Amino acid sequence: MILYPAIDILGGKAVRLTKGDFDAKKVYEEDPLAAAAAWVADGADHLHVVDLDGAKDGGPRNLENLRRIASELEVPVQYGGGLRTLQAVEGALDAGASRAIIGTAAFADPRLLDDAIARWPGQIAVSVDVRGGEVATAGWTQTTGKSALEVIGELAARGARDLVYTDVDRDGMLEGPNLESFAALLAGARGARLIYSGGIGQLADLEALASLEAPALEGVIVGKALYERRFTVAQALTVFEGPPLRAA
Known about the structure:
By secondary structure, the protein is an alpha/beta fold. The protein is 36% helix and 27% strand.
């Protein structure tokens, strides 16, 4: 599996939210590049960057921060937040993202997702954010009325196989994943590859996810637990020893 340390950018700073609440944020670094550089120095070979300003406003707002991170650190960076047009997706890839994550637009504009997958094969992922049992969009402020399994099935049928799954209700809480629920989702998510995010608070949480031994689980995103020094990148990587299930 792949470890993805998270850099969530809001107002030009590296922050973490609690349960997706923009009013419940904590600033960890004034410069997102400094946060990203710390993870890479500690051994990270992939990064997950979220443009929270873009997710809220509907268009990317932190492409310059992405450009700095991708060019200076030279590790694969997946980037999402506000990518709701083909031009926005292209801008993220041109700025250095190895993978662009489409969220709201995947549900509001199915043709855009289809066109993006066709135009940039292997470089598009879809964000499946779940709040209260339903998939959420628009920076986690709206819900679709559909379950994660229902949405994942629909996406897979359209050729969208790379998914970033976030349990919004656990995000930033450091209380661990809902392992039973996520295991059931993995079992039912035929043809999809998932990256898990939400609630990781200790190494035991990573060990529990790794113990699922699910080929559909590509990796895990960790944010607050790293910032809060619950464990280090180096310690997390020991849990994921061995080759990744799939190269980014």
